[in-house]
TrEMBL record:
InterPro entries named among the record's database cross-references: PDCD2_C (IPR007320)
Organism: Populus alba x Populus x berolinensis
Protein name: Programmed cell death protein 2-like
PANTHER family: OS04G0640800 PROTEIN, OSJNBB0079B02.4 PROTEIN
Residues spanning the signal sequence: none
Biased composition (Low complexity): 109-127
Amino acid sequence: MGGGGGVLLGMPGPWADDNREPSDFYTSKIGGLPDWPFPAESLAPNLLICGTCGSKLCLVAQVYAPISSGTLNIEDRTILVFGCIIPNCGNTPLSWRALRVQKVDSESESSVSTEEVVPSTPPVSVSKTNWLDDDSDEDIDLEALSKALSEAGTLASHSKKKDGNRRSESVVKNSTLVARTGVDMETPVVPCFYMYTQEPSSKDIVSSICSTYSELSVKEEQNCNYNDDEMGDAGEQEVYEYDKAFSADRTYLKFKKQLDANPDQCFRHSYGGKPLLATAELGDPGNCKLCGGFRHFEMQLMPQLISFLLDGADDCQKNVLENWNWMTLVIYTCSKSCSNSFDREKSTTSGWIVAEEAVLVQIEKSLHESILPGYFS
């Protein structure tokens, strides 16, 4: 994804053949089951429990989110967003959870280690223990071995960067990262489809802005054409409500024009950038629970995601998903994407960090309280 604050949009790809099918830790998708890079049993069970009703949370989004910036270079990193599908739970902050999963930093671990960069398709299989314990008289060509490992690492890294955000059948079938001994039939799931990313089109944004302000100019002109005799007390009240709505909902106008520019976007990613808010009010994301540092914006889920899920849902799931009326889910993560403070000795996740981050919910109700009825219809 990158780490310079640039915006990437998550766009819908193909539907999964089965909503519970395994994929890969480096795959971006909506719904289905999470793809952990360690045995699922190692995860603290309370992390995936709804804070409102105590039910199991389901995966809503899995977004591969590597960082490449001046100070950070983390390839093995994914953000997972979970939510509750119990009616009335999906609109409360306690029913949402965001987890940052990434490889633990280590000075002794190579940044181009073949086994870490693409654990799903290791190009070579060699054992350091065998090298050290081998008592045979056979000479080892270290220069040739080093060259082979370097070429394999480069090839593997290129392969992952190319296909990390798209479905890859070979990765799905051959992955050694999928820590599932059988199909999990207990965890609730929503319909699953895969994602790819693209940059927003500046042409579409400009077109949307022009359209929005054209509509506003027409409404303002209509408003100014009223004379005192025509308006009366009712007209004065209408003008007051319009002015109030125009002032209060400038934030939403910006939100709407960005949606109109790319109507299929399911998530927006901008590490360290600014969120696209539906309403001006936004809660406090708090500090990182591991290092105490401040959190910054990383990504958000967009309302079109719900529409796509409804398209693939059965009747039972539709009844649940129709209760979700959030406009956007805003995810804040540790600004350092820390892992050095992680207690490895007590960890059961095999060198991977699982950090709980912040999800801020902006729901439709808050929007409707300030918008003039029918203003955006």
